[in-house]
Amino acid sequence: MAFALVDASGAVQLKKKGPLSFVLSWILGLLFALSGPALMVSGFLIPETEADAGRWMTVAIGAVVACIGIPFTLAMWRGEFLERRYAAQLRAYGVRAEGEITATRPSSLGDESATALTLRVTGPGLAPYEVEYKTLDSGDYLIGARLDLLVDPNDPEIFAVPDDTPR
Questions:
Q1: pLDDT truncated to tens, each residue of the chain (167 aa)?
Q2: Does the reported pTM lie above 0.85?
Q3: Residues 90/4, Cβ–Cβ less than 8 Å
Q4: CA–CA separation, 30 vs 72, rounded Å?
Q5: How many Å is the Cα radius of gyration of the chain?
Q6: Domain boundaries, the chain
Q7: 146-151 and 95-109 strand pairing
Q8: Spacing of C-alpha 7 from chain mean position
Q9: Which among 44, 61, 66, 145 is placed 20 to 30 Å from 72, CA to CA?
């Protein structure tokens, strides 16, 4: 089953993800999100002594972990949801299109060096438009070369560059 990975340029890259990786990511996210509240509760269960600050330190650490873990987990789950939604849109409505490389320039994706390609997208039922696509592949992309694309005609900003596209 193919799922999508949305990169920094807005393109969707189809990647293989099985149900096991999906379930594991949700379980690990849930454990991470619940570890902060669990620390907080365990801090309240520590018996109180006169000079013991360990109880409140455990509660404080739990609060910090919760403040980081819960938003991180929610963002991760939202990303998973969007990946699945975009992949479903492409599977249901995607049409083959062609992206002609009109410009290239060095770029970056996070800490990685990348190549930014300006593509002129054309295809059946699509008005031609331009989009920038960033790829970690540092292949020699020539101006005028063409890439096969899979585009959602209802939302042309959602597109995929299939892995088997010749470079």
A1: 343 444 445 555 555 566 787 788 889 888 988 999 998 888 888 777 755 677 788 888 999 999 998 998 998 888 878 877 877 778 787 888 898 999 988 888 777 788 888 899 998 888 898 888 888 776 778 899 988 888 888 777 777 776 554 44
A2: no
A3: yes
A4: 10
A5: 23
A6: 8-92, 94-160
A7: antiparallel
A8: 6
A9: 44
